[in-house]
Amino acid sequence: MSVTVGAIDFGASSIRVCRVTFGDGPPELEVVHRHAHAPLHDGTHLRWDWSRLVAEVERGLELATAAGPLASIGIDTWGVDYGLLDHRGELVEPPISYRDPRTDGYQSVLAHIGEERFFRTTGLQALQIDTIFQLAAHDREQLARAHHLLMLPELLVHHLTGVVTAERSSAGTTGLLDLATGTWSPALADAIGIESSVLAPVQPAGTPVGSWRGIPVHLVGGHDTASAVLAGAQHDGPFVATGTWLLVGREQDEPDTSAAAFAAGLGNELGALGGVRLLRNVAGWWLVEECRRQWGDVDLDELLAHAALIASVPIGDALDPRLLAPSDMATTLADLAGLPDPTDRAAITRCAVESMAASAAQVIASLPGVDRDRPVHVFGGGTRSTLLLDALARRTGREVRVGPIEAAALGNALVQALALGVFATLHHGRATLVARPQRVPEEAPSER
C-alpha cells in the first residue's frame, strides 16, 4: 500500500510543490509545480511578492490533488523572515526580505544584548539577517498593529488552515528562542521592544495543525535546511546543503555553546526532530546568480562550462558579510579575491565556485571531533554542478557523496510519513532513500 503526501518547499529563488509517494521501495518524488521568484523593491524596502507566492502555492496544490489524493500537506521555507498579522488575521504588510539593508545597524542592537550572551542563550552566531535584528529595525507603527508574528512556513500554514503556531526549527532561526528551554526568551524580546505575546506557541514537527480542503496539514521542519538535512545528511558526519547559501556543518545530538565554537563562528540550529545542526552559513549560488542577473541572465550552463576551462583563479572569503547584498556582485567578488578584471565572466564564475568551496572546507575543518575519514555529504540544487562537487572534493580532501537534489522536499515528506505512521522511526525512513550517483549532468543549480 502506498501513501502520497504534498510537500511545499520554498527556496529563496524558486518554490516547488511536490507529490511524494511512499511504498515498498524508495520514495517517488514528482515536482508538480515550480515557480521562480525574487524579492521586489517597493521604493522603501525589498519585499517578497507574497500574494503571488501564495497564489502559486494554491495552484500547485490544485495540480497535486488533481493527480491523486494526498494524505497530508507540509510546508518548509527559508528561515529568518516573517509576517505580521493584525487582529483580523490579515497581513499588516508584505514580508520584507532578509537582504533588505534595514539591518545594516544591527551591531548596535547586538552590543546592547551582548554577543556572547546572545550566543549562550540562543546557540546562534549573530548574523545581520536574523529575525531579532529585522524586528529591531521594523517600523514601530506596523509592529504596534501586530497581534501575531509568524515565520514564513507558519504564515503559509495559517493561510491554509487559519491556525496560529510556530514550529521548532523555524522558530530557532529567529534569535529569540532560548536554546535551553525551547521557548521564547522574554529577555531578548524585551531587548528589542516587542511583546512576547505576539510570538505563537512553539510546537514540534509532526504536529497536526488543521486541514486544507479536508487534507490534514502537519508541521514539518519549517526551516528548509532542517528538512533538507533529514534527507541528505548522516548523523555526526559533515554535510554541505547547497542552494542560495551553502549550509556547512554536521548533525549532532547536543548543542555546542563552548568558547571554541563561539570563536569558530559556529551556530546551533535546531533540528526538525530533535538535536541540532552545528554549522555556518557560507555564501552559495547567490554569488553566481547575482552575477548572472547583472550580466543580463546569461546562460548558466555555458557560463559554468567556460569557468571549468580556467586552470586556477584567486579566491575570496565566501563568509564575508559584504557579499550579502552588494550593488555590484562581480566587482565585489573581484575586489575580495584580487581578480584583475571584474568583467571576465568565466573567471568571476570560477572564483565564486572555488571561493564557496574553499570557505566550506574551512568550516568543515573547524568542526570539533569530525573523523578525518568521514565523507562529506552534499545535497540540494547545487549538486547539479560538477564544478562545485569537484572543488569541494579537492579543497576538503574528502570523498564527496551526493544526496538528493530535492532534499528539503524529501525531508518535509519524511516528517509527514512519520506523523502518518508510515515509518516507526526516522532511521527507517532514511533507510528508504537510495544512494544517489556521485556525478550528475551539469545544469542550472536550483535554489532551495
**What characterizes the major β-sheet?**
6 strands, mixed
The level of helicity is 25-40%
Would you identify the regions where 5 or more consecutive residues have pLDDT less than 50? 435-448
Structure class:
alpha/beta
Label the overall shape: globular
Hey, roughly how much beta strand do the residues contain? 15-25%
Number of helices: 17
Number of strands: 18
What is the terminal-to-terminal distance?
A: 30 Å
Strand order of the largest sheet: 15-16-14-13-17-18
Rounded mean pLDDT score: 94
Our Rg estimate from Cα atoms comes to 21 Å
Quaternary organisation: single chain
Structure report:
- There is one protein chain.
- With 448 residues, the chain is of the alpha/beta class.
- It is built from 17 helices and 18 strands.
- It has helices spanning 50-66, 106-113, 115-122, 131-136, 140-144, 152-161, 168-171, 186-191, 224-232, 259-263, 286-294, 300-308, 329-337, 345-366, 386-396, 407-419, 426-431, and strands at residues 3-10, 14-22, 28-36, 40-41, 46-47, 73-76, 82-85, 148-151, 166-167, 202-203, 208-212, 215-218, 238-242, 245-252, 267-270, 276-283, 376-380, 400-402.
- The strands form six sheets. A six-stranded mixed beta sheet has the order 15-16-14-13-17-18, sandwiched between helices. The chain has a four-stranded mixed beta sheet with strand order 3-2-1-6, sandwiched between helices.
- Mean pLDDT is 94; it is low at 435-448.
